[in-house]
Amino acid sequence: MHSQDELVLHLPKEYEILVEHQLQEYKTFLNYLACLKENWENFITTGRIDQARFIRPEVLSSWKRSRERGIDPYKLYPISLAPKNLKQKLAENQELIDIASPFLDAFASNLKDSGFRVDLLDKDLYILKQFGEPGVLETARKQGSYPGVSRCEEATGTNAINLAAILGRPIQLVGPEHYNAQLQYWTCSATPLFDENGDLLGVVNVAGHYLKVHQHTLGMTIALGKAIEFSWCQNRLRKEKELASKYIESIVDSIFDGLIALNGEGRITVFNRTAGQLLDITPHEALNQLADTVLGYQPIIFKALRTGEAYINRELIFNTRNKRKIVIGNVVPITNNNGVNGVLAVFKGLSHARGFIKNLAGFKAYFTFEDLIGSGPRFTQAVNLARQSSALPSNILILGESGTGKEMFAQAIHNASGASDGPFVGINCAAIPAELIESELFGYEGGAFTGAKREGQPGKFELAAGGTLFLDEVNAMSMAMQAKLLRVLQNRSFTRIGGINEIPLKARIIAASNKDLWEEVRQGNFREDLFYRLNVITIEIPPLRERKEDIEELIRHFCQKHSKRLNFNFTISDRALELLKIYHWPGNVRELENVIERCAVLAYSRSSSCIEEQDVMSYPGIKKTFEITKELPDRVEIYGNVGNLETLEKQVIEEVLKQTEGNISRAAEKLGITRKTLYRKIKKFGILLPARR
């Protein structure tokens, strides 16, 4: 057997040189530590270092700050969080802990038997979690290093952790470089962690016995920190992507419009909640499915996908669960440099397509009850009844002569009702040929008749869904059309021309007639059963000649209205005003407004801002009325005494009856009033009918 000395003597020469070199490095290191210790002791004693050999400027600056703060260099008074506060601190930094822990745990497992541990600290430099062997962690605890303890400079003086945070870069400290003597047992390699915005997240610290210091430890700590930072940024990007996806999903689902997107293969990639509600299918059932298998064949959508052409405000028909769903919307292709790779359909149900429907052909109500001018008892009674009726869903029948404002009443009722944000769809039954009114009201399917649009067209009943349908001059409907309207009102549903699907009626019906419907029913011109359906609430608007007390108020209103419209201010003289009060107004309020505007233009042509008698008398209707009387009473006398108005009216009626030899029909026609009104005035004034020849 050879002795140990003999073995050493037989080692190769290069090994002897290596051992000698390592011994020399170790002696240099011990000398370096001794110098550091000497410098530290001098600084602690005197507060200065005459020759600061081996002391880095950043370390010396921290020593000075620690001394100025009065930190005891021999005793450690760790600042530690209470259990409750530590729990809160851990919760606040859970994301950092979750991201860093796998890296730090794996790194610590490679430090087995080395005596090193790994610390994770937050941006306030509180220890969040430690990694390492139980014995190493227990040693650290005894020396005041455990979760919840602060390693800030104010609490512990100079250490690698707070210097890394202060300097914003990695740093390694060994033994005597620590300001506190109790921390000089350790060598620490610390690197700061920064988030995607460059703000401090925390610090990673690798600590072990000071004699085991090695520059490689700092390098590994730096690599560890970079890996954590990268993972943090990736996690944030993933979260931002998920959040953005959630935002988009929430926005899509919160839109009141149905929204469907198809990819280039015709598969559904987006299907929001509103689309599901409108089409009676859940998004889960529709997503990633071929559109034609879920929604039925869609000519417009697939045409947009094929050609890249957009379709705006079009009717879309879906067939889901064996039910036909009709909506209105836009179909827009999704394109990129490679052409069309998808299509987006945004649509509303007919009952909610209010913005589109209101703008379609002006389906909007403009007038409110504030626009109904008049304070006479009969007119006020009609307004009050209309106002009270607006809150009810019942059908309303408005009776009144042409020009009395029946549509204004209908619009005011609509705007005061619960359906005010819905469309107001009006149709004049007398203005549409009998053969076309059915398609106007009911709509038609594509190809239902010669000349029909290929895609079909919704009728007024559909367009008025969620709002009001106003049937003006309903008395002009043919008996055949009256029967069809009656069926709609009874069943609350209808079918398009050429269609087979029942469409629910979701509109309130307001009808109007310029003839006495009771009389029309009696004469067989109007269906009695339809009359009762429409006549749930009846509002009678009196003609203007029966509300003389409102004429002046209306005139003042129209003068103000047309002053703004014609862009010049004008007034009316007392004489002209009294003359207008005398006229019997066969055209009612509409005629009165036209006369005021006409007279204003005549006044303007005379460079005058006041309507005078000559302007009023130039109107043929008024001029003819006074010519009938043969002899106009003294005008000054008329204008000065309003009480003479009824006297003049009586004289006019007597004169016309005289000219027509007591023929009531001819006299009423000549006066521009109904037979019923003429009889009432004859009775009122006690006029004796002239004997017929």
UniProtKB/TrEMBL annotation:
> Per UniProt, which keywords does this protein have?
ATP-binding, DNA-binding, Nucleotide-binding, Transcription, Transcription regulation
Q: Using the record's annotation, list all stretches that form the PAS domain.
A: 244-289
One GO molecular function term?
sequence-specific DNA binding
Q: Name one Pfam family in it.
A: Sigma54_activat
All copies of the Sigma-54 factor interaction domain together span 372-601
The cross-references to CDD domains, in alphabetical order and at most eight, read: AAA, PAS
What InterPro entries does the entry give? AAA+_ATPase, AAA_lid_NorR, GAF-like_dom_sf, Homeodomain-like_sf, HTH_Fis, P-loop_NTPase, PAS, PAS-like_dom_sf
Supply one GO BP term.
regulation of DNA-templated transcription
The protein in question is named PAS modulated sigma54 specific transcriptional regulator, Fis family
